[in-house]
Amino acid sequence: MASFVDRVVLHAFGGDGGNGCASIRREKFKPLAGPDGANGGDGGSVRLVVDPQVTTLLEYHHSPHRRADKGAMGMGDYRQGAHGQDLVLRVPDGTVVKDLDGNILADLVGEGAEYIVAAGGRGGLGNMSLASAKRKAPGFALLGEPGDEADVVLELKTIADVALVGYPSAGKSSLIAAISAARPKIADYPFTTLVPNLGVVQAGDSRYTVADVPGLIPGASEGKGLGLEFLRHVERCAVLVHVLDCATLEPGRDPISDLDVIEAELAAYSADLDIDGSRVPLAERPRLVVLNKIDVPEARELADFVTAELEGRGLRVFEISAVSHEGLKQLTFALAELVEKARREAPAPEPARIVLRPKAVDDSGFSVTRVEEDGQEYFRVTGTKPVRWVRQTDFNNDEAVGYLADRLARLGVEEALLKAGARAGAEVLIGAGDNAVVFDWEPTLMTGAELLTGPRGTDLRLEDHSRPSRNEKRERYHDRMDAKAEARNELWTEREAGKWTDAADE
After folding, report:
1. Cβ neighbours of residue 79 closer than 8 Å, sequence gap 6 or more
2. What is the pLDDT of residues 286-331, one digit of tens each?
3. What are the pLDDT digits (tens) for 387-441?
4. 4-31 confidence digits (pLDDT tens)
5. Annotated binding residues, as ranges?
6. What is the DSSP-derived secondary structure letter of residue 430?
7. How many Å apart are CA 383 and CA 367, to the nearest integer?
8. Which of 115, 134, 162, 282 is most buried (most C-beta within 10 Å)?
9. Whole-angstrom Cα distance, residue 364 to residue 80?
10. At 205, is the secondary structure helix, strand, or coil?
11. For residue 460, what pLDDT is reported?
């Protein structure tokens, strides 16, 4: 069973937000005391956090599907739903987060660095939060938003000070076992090392880490052998050590040709790297050459023969034997010197900058697109607000659907549909993909008696709250008195003219 995994595909699901509650408070002598339905809780998010105690992605290789907790539903009596707990996933230092297309989303370096893979959904509003002066008792609540779903690739790039590179069976595993407490697998056949090995070396007062990268062969930068799988572990190392086999029995191989091949593969691989300014390019990093296996007489003779040519290239050469430990002390102190120099010259880490990206002032927040497919016409509405509002709507509640229609009309969706050429009965889709909500559009009429109506559920003709002033009341009173006096005079005039008589006078 594998104990080291440096690449996995993680399927993350944020927790869904809890639904809001529609409830009416009831008290003694007050059967309808107003809405008291509280909001639902927010769903938890899936977060990646760097933990120095974690060295492999093996846990996510066995369990790639991770889901955060849901938010609890709101309740009556103003009891808000509990928020879902965030799911914290511990990853090694040097983990790179990519999407399925290979685009880098985050580079997690340093203890505590984190990245939110899938955000949790927001909880729905209860009818207590939806109440207003004109909507005093809403009979509906908003649904919680579903959490985000994301499929990401996690790649581990080992963070070490020194990287040992070379052909298979060059003695890299034996060397790291000789200078550190690491105990990698050692055998006399190629590709014994299938995973990178890390070791800690103490040289005087200096301590540094060494990574044993699996063997490279010609074409490794193109994916041959285990090249692309483990070349990325060289990216973050400050010093490169070429381990050359002076006792190889393969025809056509010698230390000089082995060095040229490995350098060519490193150059081809580094050409495709996008290294930021905080790290030295791979081709410019300090190098050492180690001529290994000089405990074999023929190997010692070959090492003495090629040392002058290697030094002529400006490389420091060390003749060692991982078996007899000859030359190891000088090598460890030379590596310590280079590591300390690289640490001194490394730029100081800068604090993370907070980047604010405010939305444009004239951003309507949605777009309407006319689409024709197979001779059929429909209109697609996309945007953060319309899609979120549709997700929050309970379509089994007519009042909730009416509330959605009011929100879309205020946002300007109906006006945009008219400009796009939509007519009554046109097919409209809100959202992208197969999860869009489909309905037949019926525009809101804004002529005739509809102009007398106010918000949904009200009628201005039934709500005349105007109050006359004192002068207006006085004028109305005098008008009534004048009308009564005029009526009495008219009746008295008709009586004197004999048009009618009182029965008491006969």
Report:
1. 38
2. 888 988 888 888 888 888 888 888 888 888 888 888 888 888 889 8
3. 888 889 988 888 888 888 888 888 888 888 888 888 888 888 888 777 788 888 8
4. 677 889 999 999 999 999 998 888 877 7
5. 166-173, 191-195, 212-215, 292-295, 321-323
6. E
7. 6
8. 162
9. 32
10. coil
11. 47
pLDDT-derived band at 71 (thresholds 50, 70, 90) equals: very high
- Closest CA relative to residue 231, chosen from 244, 217, 243, 245: 217
Residues near 48 by beta carbon (within 8 Å), at least 6 away in sequence: 89, 91, 95, 97, 106, 108, 114, 115, 116, 117, 154
At 186-235, the pLDDT tens digits run 545 444 545 667 788 888 888 888 888 775 655 444 444 444 455 666 77
Residues 6+ apart with CB under 8 A from 197: 173, 176, 182, 184, 211, 212
Helix axes 398-411, 384-392, angle to 10 degrees: 170
C-beta of residue 24 within 8 angstroms of C-beta of residue 139: no
The helix (H) or strand (E) run that includes residue 106 is: strand 104-108
Q: Is the dihedral of CA 492, 497, 501, 505 positive or negative?
A: positive
**Cβ atoms of 41 and 72 closer than 8 Å:** yes
What is the C-alpha to C-alpha distance for residues 392 and 291, in angstroms, rounded to an integer? Answer: 68
Which two tokens mark 361? 């002032």
Using a pLDDT cut of 90, give the percent of the chain over it. Answer: 16
Place of tokens 């040229």: 260
**3 state SS of 13:** strand
Amino acid at 337: E
- How far is residue 57's CA from residue 4's CA, in Å, rounded to a whole number? 7
Question: Could you give the CA distance from residue 52 to residue 426 in angstroms, rounded to a whole number?
Answer: 58
Tokens in use for 305? 């023969």
Q: How are beta strands 206-212 and 427-430 bridged, if at all?
A: unpaired
- Please give the full DSSP string across 208-246, using - where no structure is assigned: EEEEEPPP--TTGGGT-TTHHHHGGGGTT-SEEEEEEES
Task: Return the pLDDT at 72.
Answer: 94
| Residue listed under structure tokens 């659907």 | 401
**pLDDT attached to residue 432:** 76
**Length in residues, the chain:** 506
User: What residue numbers does the annotated binding site for Mg(2+) cover?
Assistant: 173, 193
Residues in binding site for GTP:
166-173, 191-195, 212-215, 292-295, 321-323
How many Å apart are CA 368 and CA 383, to the nearest integer? 9
